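Okay, any thoughts on this one?
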Amino acid sequence: MRQKDSMPRPKQGFKMGAAIRYNDAILGAKGKFLIELRDSRTGDLLYYEERDNIITLDGGVLAAMLFAAGATMTSGITMLAVGTGATGPLLNPDAPDPRQRHLNAEIARKPFSSVTFRNSAGAVSSVPTNVVDFTTIFGEGEAVGPLNEMGLMRTISMNPLVLNPVPSVFPAYDPTVDLTLFDVEVNYLTFSVVSKPSTSVLTITWRLTF
């Protein structure tokens, strides 16, 4: 179990991973995630980790679509998806790549429990800011399995059972695909396996700073 005190305040800034390469200038956007797994009956902390993540190439396209929302009628990020398909060793999976367009083996997705803007001191803001936390809670019986990948999604449907993935075979990336027709994976992360039993509650907060 990895354990830290708290997610850094927005003013401290976040380092982008080397895997971002040529899309690391997308709006200056940065991301960080916090994952907490607790026993649902005792409340005991089973696992805790926080780490930087990457913004995908498709995330940059979605940002452009949002700026042109009057023309595209697109929506923002709607769900968090988790899966078991990270490639590489279980304890040291391959680094995420910005060309990733969907999870390799998605097992669950869910709308956010809360979306919270924060000010430069890390406190909740009553008005929109450039720092926003997306929090999702998977309860007992949800997202059960050896999780090792996740991603923030702009989904076509608000039904978690309806998937509309971008047709792609990683690492190929076709920039001519019309993303208005598909679920857009904005962020992608791989991590060492976190086994979620059916008697646990998994809370994931994904912070984006623009």
